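pls design
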């Protein structure tokens, strides 16, 4: 039997992973996932690829901390916590890897807090107003996501991670957690390593997801989210075993076919 072993939400793009026991799913992905992001002075998204201190910020919403009385709460070591109120600002133009969208800026107090944590004066926090249309080569007309890099939901299997650790060898069991790959959904059980590459659709609980493509991995996986230290793995080993089309691959991108809810422990069935 294959089942869902963890659900991961990232309320603000590139901030700390929040593990939850259940999640709602809508057309944009897991509700509450990457609906906020940090932008620079030009309105372009800032991620941990270029500013690793983002990993030190914990972001919570009512989806990750039930009962939270504000839309978003941020905290970081040495800086305490700050509540993010409902924004009344006008929508502004932002970009996600060059794709223009509209978003609303947070309050000046939140902006100043964020600038202090990241030690830079050109950043701001914005909330999604307009979803990002998906690549028509893989998606149907009207399908969109929030501030995710590619598609609404990402998935990886524990068996694939075990195989990758075996390829890397000594020390990889503890040094390469699933967190390096930041999937929304992790599956476990009777599934062969990298079997998810071959899935066309997968049913998790009462929701069916379309598997649209694999995930090409970037230098962000080289950064240990706990220590903020970079190394050669896992890209070095993925390049030996999982490289094609000029990229290295781990995990898959999903688009939900229907809304609903998922729970840790739900059965996972490729269809």
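designed seq:
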């Amino acid at each position: 039997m294959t089942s869902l072993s963890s659900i991961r939400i990232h309320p603000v793009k590139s901030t700390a992973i929040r593990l939850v026991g259940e999640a709602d799913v809508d057309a944009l992905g897991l509700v509450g996932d990457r609906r906020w992001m940090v932008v620079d002075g030009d309105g372009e998204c800032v991620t941990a690829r270029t500013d690793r201190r983002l990993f030190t910020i914990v972001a919570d919403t009512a989806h990750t901390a039930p009962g939270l009385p504000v839309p978003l709460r941020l905290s970081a070591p040495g800086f305490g916590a700050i509540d993010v109120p409902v924004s009344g600002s006008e929508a502004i133009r932002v970009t996600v890897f060059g794709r223009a969208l509209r978003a609303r800026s947070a309050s000046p107090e939140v902006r100043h807090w964020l600038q202090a944590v990241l030690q830079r004066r050109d950043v701001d926090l914005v909330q999604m107003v307009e979803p990002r249309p998906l690549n028509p080569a893989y998606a149907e007309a009207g399908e969109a996501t929030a501030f995710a890099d590619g598609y609404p939901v990402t998935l990886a299997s524990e068996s694939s991670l075990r195989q990758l650790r075996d390829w890397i060898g000594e020390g990889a069991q503890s040094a390469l957690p699933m967190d390096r790959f930041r999937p929304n959904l992790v599956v476990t059980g009777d599934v062969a390593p990298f079997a998810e590459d071959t899935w066309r659709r997968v049913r998790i609980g009462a929701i069916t997801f379309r598997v649209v493509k694999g995930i090409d991995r970037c230098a962000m996986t080289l950064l240990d989210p706990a220590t903020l230290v970079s190394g050669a793995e896992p890209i070095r080993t993925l390049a030996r075993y999982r490289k094609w089309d000029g990229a290295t691959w781990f995990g898959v991108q999903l688009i939900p076919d229907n809304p609903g809810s998922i729970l840790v422990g739900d059965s996972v069935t490729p269809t």
